[in-house]
Amino acid sequence: MSVITLRDFVESDAKQLVAILNDMDVTQYLSTKIPSPYSYEDAQWWINEGSQSQLIKAVIFNDKLIGCVSVHPGEFEFDRSGELGYWLAKEYWRQGITVKAASMLLETVFSKTKIARVFAYVCEDNPASMKVLQRLGFEQDAVLKNAMFKKGHLFNAHLFSLLKPKN
């Protein structure tokens, strides 16, 4: 039986981070703040500094690093909102792993933080990510026209959100 768990990033993840984040299929829709090409030094920085938040987790499948899921809390008047992000090694796509990992993190976010709304932006030509969000219960709030600029092109950004369940 395959087991999905979340944990903090550790030193031994560096080689796998470099392999996954140098796959252009994985990174094509990620933030351009992720270096390309992705070096061992980039992985070291991520492990030791960049991922040091209770809401950034390595996705582990059968004891192997295969991805990342995170919620970045807002600030000031937006401190009750957080932005969801995720990536997964290509060979694990379309198996429900991202939905499972994100739902595990969202459960923590809504039960252990003051965050009441989680949102995500998705590039218009990434329908697979939109389906992930919809499977998680997110609803589309808006389409922001020409809001993203990547690889010399403007793209519409689809904004999705999920509100904390009322108990």
Automatic annotation (TrEMBL):
Span of domain N-acetyltransferase: 4-161
InterPro entries cross-referenced by the UniProt entry: Acyl_CoA_acyltransferase, GNAT_dom
Pfam families, sorted: Acetyltransf_3
Entries under PANTHER family matching the protein: ACYL-COA N-ACYLTRANSFERASES (NAT) SUPERFAMILY PROTEIN
Protein name, entry field: GNAT family N-acetyltransferase
Organism for this UniProt entry: Pseudoalteromonas lipolytica
